Amino acid sequence: MREKAKNAMRLVLEAARFEVEEVDEPLDLSAVRDSACLLVLCSNDSELIGQFDKTNYSLMVDDQEMSCKKLLFTLDKTIVTENCIQWGIDEFVRYSGEAVLADIVDRELTFDLTPGKAKKAAVAAASPAPVEEEHSGITISHYPVKITEQAAMRTGGVQGTAKLRFIPYFLFHYISSGEQVYKDRRIPFDADGWGAINAINGIKIDLDGKLLEETEIPGNAEVADPHIRKEEASERIVTELIERLTQKVRIKQEKGDAIFYEEKTLKPDRKNITIDAKQVYIPVWQIRGKKIVEVNAFTGELLSEPMDEGVEVF
What is the dihedral of CA 42, 48, 52, 53, to 10 degrees? Predict the structure, then answer.
């Protein structure tokens, strides 16, 4: 429990813009931000908590001594401290949720650093109010934008101009059936799956159609045009599926004193394969700074290859 609590507390503190590091036992974490220093203990041990509550801690930073405040997380509702910021279940649930929200809306989490029972906090009021999103009037079948512009810049490691682009894909569902019998061997060709092909550069990825949305996209977004036709993508899927399902069968035969092997290549019949394909879009943040990077706005993945083959790197 303690290890999981420590990891969760790290996420909360990082959402409040603290620099967090692990420390030696019996403590768990240290967190520094500007002139504030916190030492964190996650425990239900009353003796350990009592020692933590009465001990004064300090940290030397650049030859300057900094007094540390103490943050305690405990599930024991009977424990009361005088010199700690004390969090129980309610505070932990609240701040964990607000840390996630702070990351989504790109704001800084704040909480009261006054010793004693935790005070209620909210996402910083000083943060800018959310700007009402401008709509484009264009409705397409796409995967939702889950990654903010600032989060994409952090993932990409660059600051610059970010543009939201919707990249076309052909989402396909394939079904293969049938079988072939050779000698005493029965070879089935049953297969059922999903996937997608980038309609610009032809890169194939795994993709599930269950999370698609048919909604209006933001007004400042760009919708890229496909370079590959749906028929071409479907033909490629069929060809690759046939290659994947093709099997070589080797059969041992004896004739008199001789033993020989016969090898036969068996392929599925094209007429037993059906492909259902539709055009969908994946949102991508394209960030132009010292270099150009792209981040999948649905998964948060940093792309090693540009979604659009036309991207130029200067």
Answer: 100
- Separation CA 215–CA 222 (nearest Å): 15
Query: How many angstroms separate the CA atoms of 214 and 104, rounded?
Result: 22
Alpha-carbon distance of 151 to 106, in angstroms, equals 7
Residue 199 to residue 229: CA distance in whole angstroms: 7
CA pair distance 106, 264, nearest whole angstrom: 60
46-68 pLDDT, tens digit per residue, is 999 999 999 988 877 666 777 88
pTM across the whole model:
0.52
User: SS3 for 113-127, per residue?
Assistant: CCCEECCCCCECCCC
User: Which residue in the block uniquely carries the two structure tokens 């396909």?
Assistant: 172
